[in-house]
């Protein structure tokens, strides 16, 4: 018993230290941790989040998302790298499906300013702290630096609602973030073990061109270095058939009239020539292989780095809501799930082209029951073709995620 009582003050001190490092919205002594959660995509960790609320009155998530209680949301990136488009999508999609039309209209300007602040790729260890106080408004910091003038008064509750509202990032994520448990210790220790970055490059546009151009140079050098190495063995097989041809020609001369052997070598010489040509074509195939690789990367970076105006953000949110409705129209709960009382959710990532044609389906967060995964994919396939991408978004393709909740009791 004495060991347990000694451990508690140390753990509380650790949490206080974590809070002090993260921001200054409200004092660590008055903060109460609700929970910690890890968000994953493709079964790989993306980020860790921890939510804190007031000790008195008791922290209430419902009051927080309504803007009636202060809170602090700590987010630490666990994945190696994340594009600004991927990061913005985490917040935009959540707000679009959890806010009413009037709430979304009122929050569009604040959301646009917040999401447009992130112009560069985020790296492992980057930390975002969102502090909200009903009296003071919202303060957002990135790697310890306040993003001055880039957060609206009601932005905090809007962002929090997008993650733990009726349609959360995932059911497990919401539950873990709102309920303290044994796993919180491991998650917070993992968060503290992540590299503590001070760079604010992700909220500045200058470093991005350098990051995009760096990988292009090594690819070109590798392609140039491999070209001569492949060309050398190509010359050796070409010489081999030339020596083999004269041998049978010499034997044929005494057997046949002198006039006939003359066309014979002429016929045999063109035959090895085409054989050598395919060998060179086969060797040349690796050369164009590295060239297509940089092409899609350039297109992705171009689209993901687009900075949206408030009007474009509003158009995207409305478009996203329409896509979600089109998918959910074909969502059904399998009969076997009713029989066995199975419940779970699935989050899918869907890519469409300008005309709304389906380009790809990936399961970001699978269900432990495969029949839900199959039904979710089927719903997306049946919904295709989707609505066309709005021209004002200026995108060749559009990627979005959708959470399909298979709950028997709602």
Structure characterization notes:
By secondary structure, the chain is an alpha+beta fold. It folds into 3 domains: 2-205, 3-Layer(bba) Sandwich (Chalcone isomerase); 216-284; 309-406, Fusion Protein Consisting Of Minor Coat Protein, Glycine Rich Linker, Tola, And A His Tag, Chain: A, Domain 2 (2-Layer Sandwich). It is 49% helix and 19% strand. The protein has helices spanning 2-22, 61-65, 84-98, 101-116, 155-164, 171-178, 183-193, 208-213, 216-244, 246-255, 263-268, 272-284, 294-304, 310-328, 335-340, 370-383, and strands at 31-41, 44-54, 71-77, 81-82, 122-123, 127-133, 137-142, 145-146, 344-353, 358-365, 397-406. The strands form 3 sheets. Strands 1-2-3-6-7-8 form a 6-stranded antiparallel beta sheet, sandwiched between helices. The chain has a 3-stranded antiparallel beta sheet with strand order 10-9-11, covered by helices on one side. A two-stranded antiparallel sheet has the order 4-5. Strand 6 (127-133) and strand 7 (137-142) form a beta hairpin. Helix 3 runs antiparallel to helix 4, helix 3 crosses helix 5 and helix 3 (84-98) packs across helix 14 (310-328). The radius of gyration is 30 Å and the shape is globular. Residues 1-9, 11-30, 206-270 and 272-304 have low confidence and may be disordered.
């Amino acid at each position: 018993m004495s060991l347990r009582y000694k451990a508690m003050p140390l753990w509380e001190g650790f949490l206080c230290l974590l809070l002090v490092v993260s921001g200054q919205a409200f004092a660590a002594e008055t903060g109460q941790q609700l929970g910690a959660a890890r968000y994953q995509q493709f079964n790989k960790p993306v980020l860790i989040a921890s939510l804190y609320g007031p000790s008195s009155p008791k922290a209430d998530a419902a009051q927080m998302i309504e803007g009636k209680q202060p809170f602090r949301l700590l987010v630490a990136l666990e994945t190696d790298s994340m594009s600004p488009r991927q990061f913005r999508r985490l917040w935009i999609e959540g707000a679009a499906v959890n806010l009413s039309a009037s709430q979304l209209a009122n929050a569009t300007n604040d959301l646009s300013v917040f999401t447009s602040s992130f112009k560069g790729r985020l790296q492992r260890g980057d930390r975002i702290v969102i502090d909200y106080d009903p009296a003071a408004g919202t303060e957002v910091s990135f790697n310890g630096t306040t993003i001055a003038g880039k957060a609206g008064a009601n932005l905090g509750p809007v962002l929090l609602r997008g993650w733990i509202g009726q349609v959360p990032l995932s059911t497990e994520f919401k539950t873990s973030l709102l309920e303290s448990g044994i796993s919180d210790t491991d998650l917070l220790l993992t968060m503290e073990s992540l590299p503590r970055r001070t760079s604010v490059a992700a909220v500045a546009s200058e470093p991005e061109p350098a990051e995009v151009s760096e990988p292009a140079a090594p690819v070109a050098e590798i392609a140039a270095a491999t070209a001569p190495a492949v060309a050398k063995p190509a010359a050796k097989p070409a010489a081999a058939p030339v020596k083999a041809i004269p041998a049978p020609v010499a034997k044929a001369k005494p057997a046949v009239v002198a006039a006939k052997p003359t066309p014979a070598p002429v016929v045999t010489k063109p035959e090895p020539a085409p054989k050598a040509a395919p060998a060179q074509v086969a060797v040349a195939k690796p050369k164009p292989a590295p060239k297509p690789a940089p092409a899609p990367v350039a297109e992705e970076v171009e689209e993901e780095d687009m900075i949206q105006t408030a009007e474009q953000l509003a158009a995207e949110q409305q478009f996203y809501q329409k896509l979600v409705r089109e998918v959910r129209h074909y969502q059904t709960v399998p009969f076997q799930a009713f029989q066995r009382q199975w419940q779970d959710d699935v989050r899918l990532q869907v890519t469409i082209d300008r005309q709304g044609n389906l380009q790809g389906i990936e399961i970001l967060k699978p269900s432990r029951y495969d029949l839900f995964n199959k039904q979710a994919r089927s719903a997306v396939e049946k919904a295709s073709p989707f609505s066309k991408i709005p021209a004002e978004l200026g995108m060749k393709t559009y990627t979005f995620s959708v959470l399909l909740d298979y709950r028997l009791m709602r």
